[in-house]
Amino acid sequence: MFDQVQGDWPTHSRFILCSCDDKYFERYFPRFYSTFTEYWGLPIHVHIVDPSEESLGRLDDLELSYTHCDTNHYNWTQSGETLRSSNPKFAVNTSEHMTRGMYETYCQAQRFIVLGHNIDERQSVIVADVDAYALRAPTDVEREYLYKDMAFTTFNSRLMATFCHFHAEHREEILKMSVMMTKLVKESKTLGVDQKVLKSVFGRLPYQELTNGEWIRHFDVKTENDRQEHDRCLIYHEKGTRGKNKPVETTWTDIGL
Q1: What is the reported pLDDT for 190?
Q2: Does residue 244 carry a pLDDT above 70?
Q3: So what's the pLDDT on residue 209?
Q4: End-to-end CA distance of the chain
Q5: What are phi and psi of 228, to 5 degrees?
Q6: Which CATH number belongs to the domain containing residue 111 in this structure?
Q7: Per-residue pLDDT averaged across 19-34, rounded?
């Protein structure tokens, strides 16, 4: 499933890449597509994990480039049990929790894994969470700042995976990132490998810092003031279960499907 990716990598010199499983695609992608199309005006490439035929048909109807992979043959239960038995801090978790955790870890990492094996020498790729969305158009100055090198928001000393930019000049490091994430997921050694590997590979390289609270805000939305602070950013991403449980107002009908 790591190296048996189906579909064609885009030929655009600059584009936005998102990745998700079928559940997240169904729920969040209409909003992602609508807002990034309106405010950023860049091609969007989707990598979808375990897609339904309906989801692939929707991507065809939207005339978007996409890749996809199938993990149905993979033993996620065994992967979760391997992690639980090897790491005492996970011993109290149920098998269901660990299975879901390993699957989500793979889904989070897969966009970076696919990127590392495919980005070419002339490409500039924005990577964004599918449950994030654009709030306004970036200025020419903001675009230039983002595109000229690698770019991340930082929060609590972490390089955040929610919205970042990968520059072709660092293809060697981008491939290294991909290989490291693949190894960690295959060996079932940890949950949430994306931030760990991003910091390990890119933390000592020069990168553009996308100011937290201006580009995107990495806090839960608990109060009306939090919501207003989120609304000031270029990109909106509501963390935590509060954000996940709220209805998503943009639907497939809203984007003509």
Answers
A1: 85
A2: no
A3: 96
A4: 29
A5: -65, -40
A6: 3.90.550.10
A7: 97
Residue type, 239: K
Backbone angles phi, psi at 112, to 5 degrees: -75, -35
pLDDT above 90: percentage of residues in the chain = 79
Q: What is the mean pLDDT of residues 83-111?
A: 88
Helix orientation angle between 22-40 and 53-62, rounded to the nearest 10 degrees:
10
Domain hosting residue 231, numbered range: 6-255
CA 192 to CA 53: how far, in whole Å?
28
DSSP-assigned letters across all residues of 4-24: --EE-----SEEEEEEEEHHH
Cβ neighbors of 132 (< 8 A, separation 6 or more) are 32, 162, 163, 216, 235, 236, 237
DSSP letters for 108-141: HHHHHHHHHHH--TT-EEEEE-TT-EE-SPPPHH
Q: Evaluate whether residue 1 is within a structural domain.
A: no
b vs e for 45-69, b when ≥16 Cβ sit within 10 Å of the residue's Cβ?
A: bbbbbbbeeebbebbeebebbbbbb
- Residue 247 in any domain: the answer is yes
Number of compact structural domains in the chain: 1
d(CA 205, CA 83): 31
Threshold 0.90, pTM exceeds: yes
Query: Residue 133 corresponds to which tokens in the numbers above?
Result: 């969305």
Angstrom CA distances, 63 to 18, 134, 189, stand at 16, 21, 38
pLDDT in tens, 37-87: 999 999 999 999 999 999 999 999 999 999 999 998 899 899 988 888 888
Amino acid, res. 93: N
